[in-house]
Amino acid sequence: MNWTNVLAIFGAVTGASGLGWQMWSHRLTGGRVEVLSTRLKQEGRWWVRTDVSNVAWM
To answer: What are 12-17's contacts with CB under 8 Å, separation 24+?
Structure first.
C-alpha cells in the first residue's frame, strides 16, 4: 500500500463522514416555517389572510 492509496482512503472516509453528518444534522432540524394570520371585517364579512414563509435560522 503506497501513500496515494492511503490518502485516497482517508479522503473517502472523511468525505463520507462529512456527508453523513450533514444529512443527519439536516434531519434533526426539520422544517422551519413562519405563519402569520390576520383578519379584517369588510362590508359585513370577515376575511382571514394567512401567509406562510420559509425561515432560515443560523
So the answer is: none
